[in-house]
Amino acid sequence: EPSERPTRTAVVVGDLFPLGLAMAANGFASPIRVLTPSEAGAALAALREYQETQPGGLLRGDARFKLHLLLPAFCRLVLHPVLVRAVCEALGTPDVLCWSSDLNVKEARSPTYASAHQDSTYANLLPTDAALTAWLALSDAPLEAG
């Protein structure tokens, strides 16, 4: 018979709970509004333009990685002051380094679902309490999208 796991109430980032507390309680912090609609739109437009340069207009393999080194719009994303401040606060450090940037494209109305997982398992981010991943949506994404 499976053992029951204790449940926790998620701590949501906001005025009452700073980001660092949400990270400590949940292992994640959400939602954090990083980009304005115009910033997200500009990054999405740059992504679509880049996508058209790829074979078949598809982002596959290495074409999905380290775009902050190729596209000025994605460099602006990883240097965005709201994102940098959130990462610094979550890690409790004044200095951070962007190790990589990866795309996980999920088109609108796609049936794919990204379940909860630990990125450190796949990316070998060690020590796990000194690294994190930040996920940014470039378009509206309903909660049901995962």
Taken in chain order, the helices and strands follow as HHHHH
Count all strands and give the number: 0
Helical/strand content category? mainly alpha
Q: What's the domain count?
A: 1
Task: Give the N-to-C terminal Cα separation.
Answer: 29 Å
* Contiguous uncertain segments of 5+ residues: 1-12
Hey, roughly how much beta strand do the residues contain?
A: under 5%
Tell me the radius of gyration.
Answer: 17 Å
**Major sheet size, sense and barrel closure:** none
| Overall average pLDDT | 80
Instruction: Categorize the overall geometry.
Output: globular
The total of helices stands at 5
Q: Approximately how much helix is present in the residues?
A: 25-40%
Written account of the structure:
This protein has 146 residues and is mainly alpha-helical. The protein has one domain. Helix content is 32%, strand content 0%. It has helices at residues 19-26, 37-52, 72-78, 81-91, 119-123. Helix 1 (19-26) packs across helix 4. The radius of gyration is 17 Å and the shape is globular.
Q: In summary, what is this structure?
A:
It holds the Pfam family PhyH. The protein has helices spanning 19-26, 37-52, 72-78, 81-91, 119-123. The protein is globular, with a radius of gyration of 17 Å.
Q: Layout of SSEs?
A:
Blueprint: H1 19-26, H2 37-52, H3 72-78, H4 81-91, H5 119-123
Helix pairs in contact: 1-4
InterPro entries: Phytyl_CoA_dOase-like (IPR008775)
Pick out its properties.
5 helices; 146 residues; mainly alpha; disordered N terminus; globular
